[in-house]
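On to our target:
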Amino acid sequence: DLSLHSWCFGSSGINAEYGGQKAVSSTATPRTRYGGKTTVTLIPVRNMALLTALRGGPDTVTLIPGDGVGPELAESVTTIFKEMAVPVQFEEIQLNRELMKDEGAFEYAIKSLKRNGVGLKGVINRSADFRHHNLEFRGGLDVYANVVRCMSFEGIKTHHTGIDLIAIRENTEGEYSSLEHESVPGVVESLKIITREKSMRIAKFAFDYAREHNRKKVTCIHKANIMKLSDGLFKACCKEVSEDYPMITYEEQIVDNTCQQLVINPQQFDVMVMPNLYGNLVSNLAAGLVGGAGVVPSKSYGENIAVFEPGARHTWMEMKGMYVANPAAMVLSSAFMLKHLQLNEAGDLLIKAVNNVLNKRSCMTIDLGGQASTLDMTKAILMELDALA
């Protein structure tokens, strides 16, 4: 499958092999310099032009850098992709807190995502003035399943080790339906919407995900002891779906106990499936257990679309333009995007390069106790890619 062998790295003046295919040049010179220093020498493989032609040209991906440090993180990804020479081109759309007020800009972004079917997105700051736009990203595109993987890294010192859990969050209803009103002055009612259709859909997604990724257990997170109808329906749907997957252990847990258990014994969890609000709380808590927002990737899926973004949705507005943010989460998200595009070898190698940088602790940003900049970590990832080739 040529899509699995689309590029390789090598040292200048040396023929390199990757996946059994030879590099074309023995006199290659460094393509790019980043931060004034040569980072990696790229040698395209012989079949790059053929690969691109067979794929009908490069895949086009919608790139929305977002607010705060988002543009700096997006720059890290585009720099790495350029060096890797993967057959991906970005349709970059500037959409942030201010531009969200422009209906035309927002609608263009939605159309781009629907047209391309794949997006890489930073976090957009939100306010009550245009909260419906944020809901439209999820509900309008129907990216109903948010998947956050929280995994321990040897090089990041945390209270727990050996964590590897998947938080799957229903992304389109629940408390996030944003249906609120003031019935009388001083009294606000907020509607929580749970439907059988969407509960069955997310439950089936969770069990399919567990089966396809060789996971052994799915835990339904709920609060059905209090919200007997809404969360009771969600729990019943998960239980019903579980009966079609006898090879996967099924458990149920009340959300407040889940938060406690995550702090005490997070290794007990494998795949977790839950309504929208609980997913937000659990994924952020789990991210904190493994090193924070800078190292946790996520992806959201619909029937015909996939959007990749950092797993913990923080813009870090106060550090905008300072290039101190950790790019690992955004780069890992982009690596999972490559795998979604069937560029599996490229995605796996990029994941390994990021893991090596974090585990070696050779280049750590301030959120991980170091002093490295966004640019420094990007260079470190590129050097690891070169070493792995």
Summary: The radius of gyration is 22 Å. The first strand starts at residue 17 and ends at 18. Residues 1-48 have pLDDT under 50 and may be disordered.
